[in-house]
Specification:
Length: 349
């Protein structure tokens, strides 16, 4: 970006603490769109002109205070961003390079992606794969990266097409929708598990061979239930994750991705010592850089989703964000929502 086009300030959605007057204890948070001095990015190794971001469940929890996500306040929200390099003190990146950042502490411990300009350490920055774009990258974002990382871990554990069905819970969410699309594209038999009865047509259009409704499932209470699944990607936790451990085939793997129902897990050691079940934790935020680069290359190649036009349901602006967060917390969102970071009157460089 031409130095003359770098502004003195930029727009960002910053999350502020709400405090009681006495004794000043934080009792909530408030997200506000405001102007931020560009000098706040002076010490950053790489400054990105944000083109797109996206909304993850974690973003909504952070911005509404519904979950304890933020490690400092005030903080610019958004755990994802894609755009072009506007300034770089890192020899690996030059002005104009198209890049993406997901996780790594963005929007949790470090000012995040809901901003026209985002400053980050160079090690967090990933060059966009060839034949992709900022919009494509944020159609995936942390959700797509997490789904791909889960598939990578399951395949490393021995999962192959033809070994049996793969269950995906929380199927209509970002991770679930993208996981179904990727798995089906790889030739896996995918069973979508959802609490939304109206979603059958949508889930089958992504590649699910069958859709199970949670309210019709008999999970049982035995230490081991009928062996159904070669693998699973679980977004829910709680009783669903416990049931998955009890209903896996021999040597099956479960990628534990989320806790939208519960952070608790009540099970026994029986699935692990009698069927060799593997419970794989998926932490997309702390993925080592070499693996992070590899996953993004896979996302642009053999794991590339085929139905982003169905999964991305809408595009919003920075000004719209606070209203959409409430929909996420209320579990009223299907698929992915893109955030256009281009504010009228701002130079693109």
């Amino acid at each position: 970006m031409n130095r003359d086009l770098i502004p003195t300030e930029f727009k960002a959605l910053r999350i502020h603490p709400i405090r009681e007057r006495t004794p000043g204890q934080v009792v909530g948070v408030e997200a506000r769109l405001e102007s931020v001095p560009f000098d706040e990015l002076a010490e950053e190794e790489v400054v990105i002109r944000g083109r797109y971001s996206t909304i993850n469940y974690k973003d909504a929890l952070a911005a509404t205070g519904a979950g304890k996500i933020l490690r400092r306040l005030p903080l610019i929200g958004g755990i994802d961003v894609a755009g072009t390099v506007a300034r770089s003190n890192d020899a690996r990146f030059r002005v104009g390079d198209e890049v993406v950042v997901t996780g790594c502490g963005l929007g949790e411990t470090h000012h995040g992606g809901y901003a026209e300009f985002v400053g980050v350490p160079g090690d967090w920055v990933v060059p966009l794969p060839a034949s992709t774009s900022s919009r494509w990258a944020m159609s995936l974002g942390t959700a797509g990266f997490t789904a791909a990382l889960a598939i990578h871990r399951l395949e490393h554990n021995g999962l192959r097409p033809g070994t049996g069905p793969v269950a995906v819970t929380g199927a209509t969410g970002g991770v679930g929708s993208l996981a179904i699309d990727m798995l089906a594209g790889r030739g896996y038999e995918v069973v979508a598990i959802t609490g939304k009865r109206e979603a059958d047509v949508y889930l089958k259009s992504l590649g699910a061979s069958a859709v199970w409704h949670r309210d019709e499932m008999e999970m049982g209470q035995r230490p081991l239930e009928s062996a159904l699944w070669a693998a699973a990607i679980d977004n829910l936790g709680g009783d669903m994750l416990a049931w998955l451990t009890r209903s896996m085939k021999f040597w099956g793997g479960i990628a534990s991705v989320g806790l939208t129902r519960s952070a608790e897990l009540h099970t026994t050691v029986m699935p692990f010592i009698l069927r060799g079940v593997n419970l794989l934790g998926i932490n997309s935020m702390a993925t080592p850089r070499p693996l992070r680069l590899s996953i993004w290359e896979r996302l642009a190649a053999e794991l590339r989703p085929r139905h982003l036009d169905k999964i991305v349901t809408r595009e919003v602006s920075l000004e719209d964000l606070t209203a959409v967060f409430a929909e996420y917390v209320g579990n009223r969102v299907r698929g992915r929502v893109l955030v256009d970071l281009d504010v009228p009157g701002m130079p693109r460089g």
